[in-house]
């Protein structure tokens, strides 16, 4: 991966070395983006626009924690789309994990979630966030039980694995003038890029899912692979297209 990992803390130098070797962040310098290893977290930084701020994964605090506590629980649209119900523990494969936020919501609602992410930058940020979350006194125990990460192509992973539900949120090119895309996601999209092969995911996802496939899309995006879903759950700026194979048992 042609991106530099910068570390200015001597005490963190051994960890930085391991991260560079594990993920291939061996470039001495970067032109547009770089990773920074700080005492608090691993972060992605856009060098040509410092106002965008740092992008990192934090499951224990901030907006993600607020959503866990006050986001509406099983009444949330994502819970309805996935089919979460009392007394049933669903195994979910999130084949396009990104920054892991939807996966975390599902795990916080009781699902066992396997996150799959092909971008080494995104996977490294996710791993860093998971390691810190696993040690958190409030969420660490159930995080270790319910969330795990695999660095792989979602397409390849789904060919060899099955789950009750497959969740897809492929990166879709955002509208240039859209105010809907937060600064943080613009930085993330800049390094990860759009999932131009996302249409290929739907068929393997349908084969891998026991009950249903859920696809998150911007409200202006076409159906994945032009395949009409069984139903769509619309939100303010996005929607969940749900492809039902059979009813979820009790």
From TrEMBL:
**Which reactions are catalysed by this chain?**
guanosine(1516) in 16S rRNA + S-adenosyl-L-methionine = N(2)-methylguanosine(1516) in 16S rRNA + S-adenosyl-L-homocysteine + H(+)
Short name of any one Pfam family annotated for the protein: SAM_MT
Q: What is this protein called?
A: Ribosomal RNA small subunit methyltransferase J
Question: So where does S-adenosyl-L-methionine get bound?
Answer: 101-102, 117-118, 169
The UniProt entry lists the main location of this chain as cytoplasm
Give the Gene Ontology MF terms in alphabetical order: methyltransferase activity
| Similarity comment: family membership | Belongs to the methyltransferase superfamily. RsmJ family.
Organism encoding this protein: Psychromonas aquatilis
Q: What does this protein's UniProt record list under function?
A: Specifically methylates the guanosine in position 1516 of 16S rRNA.
Q: What EC number(s) has UniProt assigned to this enzyme?
A: 2.1.1.242
- Name the domain of life: Bacteria
């Amino acid at each position: 991966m042609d991106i530099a990992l910068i570390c200015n803390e001597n005490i963190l130098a051994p960890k930085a070395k391991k991260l560079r070797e594990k993920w291939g962040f061996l470039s001495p310098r970067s032109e547009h983006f770089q990773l920074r290893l700080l005492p608090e977290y691993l972060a992605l930084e856009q060098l040509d626009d410092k106002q965008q701020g740092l992008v990192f994964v934090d499951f224990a605090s901030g907006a993600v924690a607020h959503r866990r506590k006050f986001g509406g629980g099983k009444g949330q649209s994502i819970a309805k789309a996935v089919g979460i119900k009392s007394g049933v523990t669903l195994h979910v494969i999130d084949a396009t994990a990104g920054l892991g936020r939807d996966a975390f919501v599902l795990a916080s609602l009781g699902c066992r979630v396997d996150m799959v992410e092909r971008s080494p930058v995104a996977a490294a940020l996710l791993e860093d966030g998971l390691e810190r979350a696993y040690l958190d006194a409030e969420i660490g125990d159930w995080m270790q039980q319910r969330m795990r990460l695999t660095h792989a192509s979602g397409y390849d992973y789904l060919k060899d694995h099955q789950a009750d539900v497959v969740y897809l949120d492929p990166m879709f090119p955002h509208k240039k003038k859209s105010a809907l895309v937060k600064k943080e996601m613009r930085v993330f999209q800049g390094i990860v890029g759009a999932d131009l092969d996302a249409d290929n995911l739907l068929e393997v996802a349908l084969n891998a899912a026991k009950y249903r496939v859920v696809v998150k899309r911007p409200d202006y995006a076409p159906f994945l692979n032009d395949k009409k879903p069984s139903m769509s759950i619309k939100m303010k700026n996005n929607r969940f297209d749900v492809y039902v194979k059979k009813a979820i048992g009790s």
